[in-house]
């Protein structure tokens, strides 16, 4: 039985993954560094900390993680402030959770001011009892740090805490744990759908497909 919910934002709650595609090479170009297909391939699944290490090792760019993140965030800011929308079925699913008094945490790698702006503009900020970002813990989703902090806030057992993610990396992180993992379809993760299906406890194309009585 579901007692608490932890939701990812980009690709799960918001249709926003397109903002982050090829962000590494795009950031480099903003700093005046020419890029190629090898850099695109090497950085496509990296978070800022990993990109920063890679850029320095390759002699491409020597800036702090904070400077790198600030540049990337400034590039995607307009999308969050003016463009991205809630994915179909999300509001209905959030309503179902609230009707049953199931607490909800948003756990995201995106900067808090972009998160807040996008959620408020779409009218769904009110649904979340807590928002955690990877910046809060200086972590990525290759560890369970942000999920463990979220569950501690929820006060729920791991096996009654459901985590909703759209991408393969966090699902691989969570699969060996006691957490219940729901894979959520997103076009930017379609190439990994079969692997996600194999690892997740449940896979859905639309969150509103979920019958809470079956969880």
Structure description:
36% of the residues are buried. By secondary structure, this protein is of the alpha/beta class. Helix 1 crosses helix 4 and helix 4 packs parallel to helix 6. The protein has 2 domains: 144 residues, Rossmann fold, CATH 3.40.50; 62 residues. The model has no long low-confidence stretch (mean pLDDT 94). The termini are close together. The protein has 10 helices and 6 strands. Helix content is 43%, strand content 12%. Strands 3-2-1-4-5-6 form a 6-stranded parallel sheet, sandwiched between helices.
Chain-averaged pLDDT = 94
**CATH structural architecture of the largest domain:** 3-Layer(aba) Sandwich
The tally of helices reads 10
The helix fraction, in percent, is: 40-55%
Report strand order across the widest sheet.
Answer: 3-2-1-4-5-6
**Number of extended strands:** 6
Low-confidence residue ranges: none
CATH superfamily of the largest domain: HAD superfamily/HAD-like
Biggest pleated sheet: 6 strands, parallel
Per DSSP, what share of the residues sits in E-state strands of 2 or more residues? 5-15%
* CATH fold name of the largest domain: Rossmann fold
Structural class: alpha/beta
Summed up, the domain count is 2
Instruction: Spell out the helices and strands N to C.
Output: EHHHHHEHEHHEHEHE
Regarding CATH, which class of the largest domain?
Alpha Beta
Write the layout of secondary structure elements.
Blueprint lengths: L3 E4 L15 H8 L6 H7 L4 H10 L7 H19 L6 H10 L4 E5 L3 H10 L8 E4 H4 L7 H10 L6 E5 L2 H7 L5 E5 L8 H7 L2 E3 L11
Parallel strand pairs: 1-2, 1-4, 2-3, 4-5, 5-6
């Amino acid at each position: 039985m579901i007692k608490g919910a932890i939701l990812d934002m980009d690709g799960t709650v918001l249709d926003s993954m397109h903002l982050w595609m090829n962000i590494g090479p795009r950031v480099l170009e903003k700093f005046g560094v020419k890029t190629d297909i090898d850099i695109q391939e090497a950085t496509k699944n990296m978070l800022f900390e990993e990109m920063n290490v890679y850029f320095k090792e390759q002699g491409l760019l020597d800036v702090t993680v904070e400077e790198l993140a600030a540049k990337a965030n400034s590039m995607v800011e307009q999308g969050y402030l003016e463009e991205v929308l809630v994915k179909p079925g999300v509001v209905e699913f959030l309503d179902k959770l609230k009707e049953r008094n199931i607490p909800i945490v948003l756990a995201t790698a995106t900067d808090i001011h972009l998160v807040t702006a996008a959620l408020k503009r779409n009218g769904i900020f009110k649904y979340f009892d807590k928002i955690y970002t990877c910046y809060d813990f200086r972590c990525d989703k290759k560890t369970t740090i942000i999920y463990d902090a979220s569950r501690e806030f929820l006060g729920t057992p791991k096996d009654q805490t459901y985590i909703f993610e759209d991408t393969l990396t966090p699902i691989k992180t969570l699969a060996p744990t006691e957490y219940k993992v729901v894979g959520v379809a997103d076009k930017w993760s379609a190439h990994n759908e079969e692997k996600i299906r194999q690892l997740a406890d449940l896979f859905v194309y639309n969150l509103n497909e979920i019958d809470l009585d079956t969880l």
